[in-house]
Amino acid sequence: MMIQTELDIKEWIHDDEWMMDILRMVRKLNLPDWWICAGFVRTKIWDKIHGFSHRTPLADIDVIYFDSTEISEEKEKQLEKKLEQYNPNLPWSVKNQARMHVLNNFPPYESSADGIAHFPETATALGVKLHKDDSIVLCAPWGIKDAVFLEVKPTPPFKKANNRHIYEARIKQKKWHSVWDKLRITE
After folding, report:
1. What domains are defined for the chain?
2. Residues in Cβ contact with 66 at an 8 Å cutoff, skipping those fewer than 6 apart
3. pLDDT tens-place string over residues 27-39
C-alpha cells in the first residue's frame, strides 16, 4: 500500500463535492473553533484505501465547536435546526466541546482540538474545516498513521482502565470490520 499523507487526505476531501458542500454549509454558521470530525473524515479515508467506489453511509455528521460562554444543549439543537435548513437530508449532530468533557469524566477541554484528542479511537480523532478560500485544514492530534494504516486503537485517554470499557463497547457496537475488512482492531 502506498503511504498516504495529510495532503492526500485533504485532496480526497477537496475533490469530493458532497464533502465540500457540507463543509461550506457548516462554515456559514460562523461558529467559534468549528470542525467536522470523526466518521466524516475517517470514513473517507477508509473508503479510499479500501477502493470503494461508493461512499459508506454516515450515521451522523459530527459538527463540533468550542464556546465556553454558551454551553446549553438547546443551543446545539438550534444549530442542528439551522443546518437542517441548509440540507434536511443529512444526519446533523452538533456538539459544543466546552461541555463534552463531562460525558467521560475528563477535566474541561481547552479547545475543539482538545476535544478531538479525547475521542475514543486514534483513527476517529480527526477533524476538518475550511478557510475562506476553501483550503482545507486537518486536525489530527494523534496523527493520521492509524487511520491510513487501517489500525483501530484507543487514544491515550481511553487506554486507561477507567475508560477502556467505553472504547471496547464502541468497537462492538460500531462493527466497522463488517464494512472495512482490512481493519486491524486492538481490543
Report:
1. 6-185 (3.30.460.10)
2. 32, 33, 96, 97, 98, 109, 111, 112, 115
3. 999 999 999 999 9
